[in-house]
Write a structure and sequence with these properties.
The structure holds 2 protein chains of 2 kinds. Chain A has one domain. Helices cover 82% and strands 0% of the residues of chain A. Chain A is built from 9 helices and no strands. Chain A has helices at residues 3-16, 19-27, 30-37, 41-67, 77-105, 107-111, 114-139, 141-146, 152-174. Chain A is elongated and about 55 Å long. Chain A starts with a helix and ends in a 6-residue tail after the last helix. By secondary structure, chain B is mainly α. Chain B has helices at 2-10, 13-20, 24-51, 60-88, 90-94, 97-118, 124-127, 135-165. Classes of the chains: A mainly alpha, B mainly alpha. The A-B interface holds A 39, 42-44, 46-47, 50-51, 53-59, 61-62, 65, 71-72, 74-75, 79, 83, 87, 166, 169-170, 172-174, 176-177 and B 26, 29-30, 33-34, 36-38, 40-42, 44-45, 54-55, 57-59, 62, 65-67, 70, 149, 152-153, 156-157, 159-160.
Chain lengths: 180, 168
């Protein structure tokens, strides 16, 4: 089964779930109507959403470049984490709020969209990795300071995290093109 | 004149392919978004250092070394994907005011960066670490953030208004 088929079947199944009813109910709320009736609300929310992902992705990239020892080598891991992790968490909060705004404005387009749910799963995975990383640096700071970017596992892991965030952005854009 | 050129561009085989393919346009858009997010994400790290909001303990020259190559690399990707997106609908883009303003803003952001590197940067050894960035540097950092935020908004606005201004 190709990825296209998988997305198609996932979309068909989603429409048989209560999500269809829920989206239609959300669409009847005043907030949804307000967002829908004002032309500039969605593009402005999307702009804030993109700026927030820029803050998150920029921080993810800088942190992982430090792990890979490709940038920021003069700073310790603790300094790096203290500089960038808060921007990741606050950025994720802004992404969540603007994401909810877009979903309330166009509930059917999002909630019955297979790509939307694939994106949500990827975000949960990425957030868990961030949380795990933060905890690990706190607990084993000495080991992270000594870790060399040359170690295969670290190299693969760091590159995978950057790729995962790229995949999330890719999914974000493809929500607009998925068949609903 | 502009109309005739853009009409010729959309007739190129590559333009036609991007416009007609089911996957090419969204794929280019996705890569364009990832690239511009990287440009702004890394440029913001440098701008916030200049303004004095973040990374104050890190030397300015070092911050520049850490970010600039990634910013430029991503900018080249954004430029290539942006050009490919443009040629597929050149007629619609050239009459869209948000597209034209976006191009102006990118040029203005470039001029701001050039002015900073040609003038303020000359004395960087004096304010590299453990002291305040001169006002010129702070202003350049603030303007850079502002211009790129506007670029993102204009970019999003294009997608919502393409049909509105299109004459076809």
């Amino acid at each position: 089964m190709s990825l296209g088929d998988l997305i198609f079947h996932l979309g068909q199944w989603l429409r048989t779930t209560p999500l269809t009813e829920i989206s239609l109910d959300i669409q009847k709320t005043w907030l949804s109507a307000l967002i829908d009736q004002h032309f500039w609300v969605i593009p402005i929310i999307q702009t804030i959403h993109i700026l927030a992902i820029a803050a998150v992705f920029g921080s993810v990239v800088m942190t992982n470049l430090r792990i890979l020892q490709l940038a920021g080598n003069s700073r310790t891991m603790t300094e790096t984490v203290r500089r960038y992790l808060p921007w990741i968490w606050w950025g994720l909060l802004v992404l969540l709020l603007t994401g909810i705004g877009m979903t309330v404005g166009e509930p059917v387009r999002e909630l019955t969209n297979p790509v939307f749910w694939i994106k949500m799963i990827l975000i949960i995975v990425a957030s868990m990795i961030s949380l795990g990383f933060q905890t690990s640096v706190r607990r084993n700071v000495a080991r992270w300071e000594l870790t060399h970017g040359g170690r295969v596992l670290i190299r693969v892991g760091s590159s995978a995290v950057i790729a995962l965030w790229c995949l999330i952005m890719l999914a974000g854009r493809w929500i607009a093109y998925a068949p609903t | 004149m502009l109309q005739a050129i853009s009409q010729a561009i959309v007739n190129w085989p590559l333009s036609q392919f991007i416009a007609e393919s089911s996957w090419a346009f969204p794929t280019l858009e996705s890569i364009h978004v990832i690239a511009i997010v990287t440009v702004i994400g890394t440029i913001a790290v440098m701008d916030l250092r200049l303004i004095g909001v973040a990374s104050r303990a890190c030397a300015v020259t070092e911050m520049s070394n850490d970010t600039l190559k990634w910013t430029w690399g991503a900018f080249v990707v954004a430029l290539i994907t942006g050009s490919l997106i443009f040629i597929s609908k050149a007629v619609d883009y050239t009459v869209n005011p948000f597209f034209l303003w976006k191009m102006v803003m990118i040029v203005v952001a470039g001029i701001n960066m050039a002015v900073f590197h040609l003038f303020t940067w000359r004395s960087v050894h004096r304010w590299d670490k453990d002291c305040d960035v001169p006002l010129g540097g702070k202003i350049a950092g603030g303007l850079s953030l502002f211009f790129w935020i506007v670029v993102v908004f204009l970019g999003r606005a294009i997608g919502f208004t393409l049909d509105k201004f299109s004459q076809s």
